[in-house]
Amino acid sequence: MSKDINIIDLAKKLDLFYNIGVKRRERNALIQCFGIKYANDIIECNIKPEDIVEKSSLKGTAYATEIRKGITLSRYVCLKEEVDL
Questions:
Q1: Known Pfam families for this protein (predicted)?
Q2: For residue range 19-35, what is the model confidence (pLDDT) as tens digits?
């Protein structure tokens, strides 16, 4: 991803991952996958997970914790299957 990514772009991607998670009945896992996939962008742009959640349709939820888990996991894992977006 380029450095041109912004919080609105990330919030839209988060919504997409969440909706896929709802369909698969794996919401938390897909939110963590979002954190894994976009960890570098989130870190490089110095964006807080809470701010991404606030700009998404998931306002008022605790999904920032799941994003943080994904960011932490990104140092050790990569996504096995590309999430279709």
A1: HTH_73
A2: 999 999 999 999 999 99
